[in-house]
Amino acid sequence: MTRHMGFVGVSTSGSSIMKIFPRWAEILDLPTSTLIGYDLPLDATRADYRALVEQLRDDPDHVGSLVTTHKMGLYEAAADLFDELDTFSTLCGEVSSISKRNGALLGHAKDPITAGLAASEFLPSDHFASTGAHVLILGAGGAGTALSWYLCEREDGPEAIVVTDTSATRLDHLRDVHTRRGTPPDLIRYVLASDPQVTTDLLASMPAGSLVVNASGLGKDRPGSPVPDGAAFPRGAYVWEFNYRGSLEFLAQAREQEATADLVVVDGWRYFIHGWSQVVAEVFSVELSDQLVERLAEAAADAR
């Protein structure tokens, strides 16, 4: 019997995972499993989300799904349809992984784990303590929420984090998440990027070596960048583009300044690998090791 895993996004057919999943299924001994994409518009309705979750829940051959872009919208619309939600999911208000166990529908928010695994690969373990660098997260949606959560849990955490968004509602939601978590109120600033100059000024105020992250989704699902043209990144900054595909304007801006500003520029490929491997492991009850993750990464390399 064929088992299906879902992929909920905006333009799932363009994702490399469609080529990669069959290779991973072979490595993980999941030969009868297929991946099915479910595209929902950015303005999907509550009814859209609930219908999709009910479809996944009621199909006995459907073992689970990864959710991207719609993590917060799906939680808000359909949290009550799940039999169990993990701590990250309820506190962050998002679902990135849907799975089934013994007839129960489970929801998880894997992004804080994914962000930590990916960040630890390029950011030195003593970076913030040794440099005094700060963090600027551009985007307060699911990805920005997950990264800020990870940074607050990190042993070598920054002394200051700034999160921006064009939506006051998303910023308020993130503030509520950290209030429930018990994050010190003076650790994070929540800034409404109502004008491009706001972002330009924030970049100029960041200490050398700061971490600047595009968590907005711009450059993937929609063209554009949260950074205005001509804005300068902090010298020696770690500039992280969460996306690995799309128009990637933010990544291009960072590449242009890479040599002159001594930047470390990182795209979203490893974030993608960790994100998918964590959810596949949850859906199919696979135990991941570092060695197995590297095998999966190697199998995916030529699909990048």
Describe the protein.
Strand 7, helix 7 (142-153) and strand 8 form a beta-alpha-beta unit. 42% of the residues lie in helices and 19% in strands. The model has no long low-confidence stretch (mean pLDDT 95). It has two domains: 3-109 and 270-303, Leucine Dehydrogenase, chain A, domain 1 (Rossmann fold), CATH 3.40.50.10860; 113-267, Rossmann fold, CATH 3.40.50. Helix 2 (46-58) packs across helix 3 and helix 5 (111-122) crosses helix 11 (269-284). The strands form two sheets. The protein has a six-stranded mixed β-sheet with strand order 2-1-3-5-6-4, with helices on both faces. It has a six-stranded parallel β-sheet with strand order 9-8-7-10-11-12, sandwiched between helices. The chain has 304 residues and is of the alpha/beta class. It has twelve helices and twelve strands.
